[in-house]
UniProtKB/TrEMBL annotation:
The organism's taxonomic lineage, starting at the top: Bacteria, Pseudomonadati, Bacteroidota, Flavobacteriia, Flavobacteriales
Entry-linked PANTHER family: OS10G0509000 PROTEIN, OS10G0509000 PROTEIN-RELATED
InterPro entries documented for this protein: DNA_mismatch_repair_MutS_C, DNA_mismatch_repair_MutS_core, DNA_mismatch_repair_MutS_sf, MutS, MutS2, P-loop_NTPase
NCBIfam families per the UniProt record, alphabetical: mutS2
Source organism of this protein record: Flagellimonas profundi
Keyword Coiled coil attached: yes
Protein name: DNA mismatch repair protein MutS
UniProt key word DNA-binding: yes
Length: 723
């Protein structure tokens, strides 16, 4: 695959798409890299990127959300590491540590969910993990960005000395404060802070009585701020120790920088990976907003875009709550070139841009807003001539520029090219320009290039009708209102509706009629025929849609009736079964009633019993006899069920015993309450509640109202203590 010219990308508004993707990136480096995205040259690399974006998009709709990939770029730090004897700052080390940890988290996550994200796993798994980098940084710098005391023995010793000296400073200052306060030399505020030092707030009249260094005075001059002499010695010592601490910290950072310097290439790879992940995530977010997906990629050189939306138009209309019309278009070996005609403002140019932009986006590793049944191929070159390209600087007219562009097309066009030309042949004399455009189109056709053009020229419409692998198409218009429907229809050319549109816009009919007489009668008839065909097609489409609606309604009604029929049928069957059963029971009841009446009359038991047995045997003969084998199997099944039930009962009993033992043990371990006269109690195994009347030597007399009983306190449970 070859790269696509920047002019094509500009014509298709690809930079606008890139700016929208950049705005969805989380990192500064990701935003920069997103703006420089170009179509891929290598097909394998492109398929990997498309697959990764598709996997990231899938993560939005499942529970395995991909961890955060945010990072602060380390370009400055990498530049410093390349310079010998340079030292990184603490902030730089923290950024490096953060990048290393983020990569490690991603590697761990994708290893766990590699079945869901195989391509993303392969990408991060290719990185060599160096846990010693963040470990070395964490040994020196804490989570607050401070150098740890444990970074070196020398630093620990210096800091302990600093703490001791600061303690002595505070002690000496407190002593001076107490002494001068008792002498009433200090102002009401007693002390203040100047230049990060505690100072005494001395009354101006007593300034010479307080030994120390003057640091300043108040605005009124009534207070003099003095550092007590006792603290000055310790302050100088503290300054020396703080200087030593800075030197030791610098030495530690130098050493840490040297430890990390060999990993420059690894850190570059980590940063590149996270930047790529940021762009992949942004592409996935962009696709999610416009219902983008990865269509089927075919090798048969077939471009089938079903229900395709122009991304920029779709998102713009989505913000305004307006409808966007999708387009369906198909290019293949038997239909390589489509010539779209019809009036202006019908959507021809937007259809052209939709095809081109979606193809460029796909070849740049982005998902596109099309139906999932769409199928696409890749092109080595995408050539475009869209819009007015008049150049004032180069003194080129529109037509001159277009001729230069056509010359470029002729040099580059081959069977792996997609060309998109808007208003093909315009800018010159209609007949001469149309003839030249026809010649260009024939060359593109002979080279087996794929393309879509828009035109008003009748000769190009006729040529598309004559060439076996080219097709006319038009954008449907409502013939009554002359409003566009934004639907592309393949198979026939479109009328420009020149005179109809003019009439709608208030141009007098006499003037329109005069114009009609000035042109060839054949041209008017040809345009009128096309317009008539379009009207007929519109009617057919309308009729077809109505028939489809009626068909779907009839299908729904048929399904409803079938369901109702099946319900009625099942009810009839159940009623029939109930009726048959009731009839049998009535007959059986009549027989028993007859036997009972006979016995009532003659009181003979033997005939009654024999009659009853005969009735029972007759009924049993009607029942299906089970075979011995089935009876045995049923008996075995019952036995198995009984065994399973017995096992379950045993298990429940064991569990109950264990629970009971645990309860008894808990009861034993439970501390016994101390009973008092008046407490409400009950026996451990009883339910009746009584009140303790007397307590003596571990025995209690419990009053139950109707009677009293003498029991050991060990057998009692406390229900409610006396308040």
């Amino acid at each position: 695959m070859q790269n696509i010219h920047s002019k094509t990308l500009q014509d298709l508004e690809f930079p606008t798409v890139l700016s929208q993707i950049a705005s969805r990136c989380n990192t500064e480096l990701g935003k920069e890299d997103a703006l420089s995205i170009q179509p891929f040259r290598d097909k394998e690399e492109l398929m990997d990127v498309l697959g990764q974006t598709s996997e990231y998009l899938a993560s939005f709709s499942n529970y395995n959300r991909i961890p955060n990939h945010g990072f602060d770029h380390i370009n400055n730090e990498l530049g410093l590491l390349k310079i010998d004897n340079s030292t990184l700052e603490i902030a730089g080390f923290r950024k490096i540590g953060g990048i290393c940890k983020t990569v490690a988290i991603h590697q761990k996550f994708f290893k766990k969910f590699k079945e869901y994200y195989p391509l993303l796993f392969n990408k991060v798994n290719a990185l060599e993990l160096h846990s010693e980098i963040p470990a070395a940084i964490d040994d020196v710098i804490d989570k607050f960005g401070e150098i740890k005391d444990s970074a070196s023995d020398e630093l620990r010793y210096i800091r302990s000395q600093i703490n001791n000296v600061r303690s002595k400073i505070n002690q000496s200052f407190s002593a001076a404060l107490g002494r001068y306060q008792s002498s009433d030399f200090l102002d009401e505020i007693r002390e203040s802070v100047m230049e990060n030092r505690r100072v005494l707030a001395v009354k101006a009249m007593h300034r010479k009585k307080v030994k120390g260094t003057v640091m300043g005075t108040s605005k009124t001059g009534s207070i003099v701020y003095i550092v007590p002499e006792a603290t000055l010695t310790y302050t100088r010592e503290l300054n020396n120790l703080e200087f030593e601490e800075k030197e030791e910290i610098q030495r530690i950072l130098n050493k840490l920088t040297d430890e990390i310097r060999p990993y420059i290439e690894v850190l570059q790879q980590y940063q590149k990976h996270l930047s790529d992940t940021d762009i992949t995530a942004a592409k996935a977010k962009y696709a999610n907003e416009m219902n983008g997906l990865l269509p089927e990629i075919n090798e048969e050189r077939e471009l089938f875009l079903r229900d395709a939306f122009h991304p920029l138009l779709y998102l713009s209309n989505k913000r305004k709550n307006e409808k966007t019309w999708p387009q369906t278009i198909k290019l293949h070996k038997e239909n390589r070139i489509i010539v779209i005609s019809g009036p202006n403002a019908g959507g021809k140019s937007i259809t052209l841009k939709t095809i081109g932009l979606l193809q460029v986006m796909l070849q740049s590793g982005m998902l596109i807003p099309v139906h999932e049944r769409s199928s696409v191929c890749f092109f080595d070159k995408i050539l475009t001539d869209i819009g007015d390209n008049q150049s004032i600087e180069n003194h080129l007219s529109t037509y001159s520029y277009r001729l230069k562009n056509m010359n470029y097309f002729l040099r580059k066009c081959n069977d792996k090219t997609l060309f998109l030309i808007d208003e093909f042949g315009t800018g010159s004399d209609p007949e001469l320009g149309g003839a030249l455009a026809e010649a260009f189109l024939e060359v593109f056709y002979e080279r087996e290039a794929y393309g879509v053009i828009t035109t008003h020229y009748a000769n190009l419409k006729a040529l598309a009708n004559e060439l076996p692998h080219a097709t006319n198409a038009n954008m449907l218009f409502n013939s009554k209102t002359l409003e566009p429907t934004f639907q592309l229809v393949l198979g026939e050319a479109g009328s420009s509706f020149t005179f109809e549109v003019a009439q709608k816009n208030g141009i007098p009919y006499s003037l329109i009629n005069k114009a009609k007489k000035k042109i060839e009668r054949g041209k008017v008839r040809f345009d009128a025929t096309i317009a008539k065909l379009q009207k007929e097609r519109s009617k057919m489409v309308e009729t077809g849609s109505k028939l489809k609606e009626e068909e779907s309604k009839a299908r729904e009604e048929n399904e409803r009736l079938e369901k109702l029929n099946s319900k009625i049928k099942s009810k009839l069957e159940s009623y029939q079964e109930m009726y048959d059963h009731n009839q049998r029971m009535i007959q059986l009841g009549n027989k028993l009633n007859t036997a009972a009446e006979k016995y009532f009359i003659d009181k003979k038991k033997r005939p009654l019993i024999s009659e009853m047995l005969r009735i029972v045997e007759t009924e049993n003969s009607k029942r299906k006899k089970t075979t011995a084998k089935k009876a045995k199997a049923k008996q075995q099944e019952k036995k198995q069920v009984a065994q399973e039930l017995e096992q379950k009962i045993k298990k429940v009993r064991v569990e109950k015993k264990i629970k009971k033992k645990k309860a008894i043990q808990a009861e034993k371990n439970k501390p016994r309450p101390v009973f008092k006269i008046g407490d409400r109690v009950r026996l451990m195994d009883g339910k009746a509640v009584g009140t303790i009347d007397t307590l003596e030597k571990g025995k209690a007399v419990v009053n139950y109202g109707m009677f009293t009983t003498n029991v050991s306190v060990d057998q009692l449970d406390l229900v409610e203590a006396k308040k």
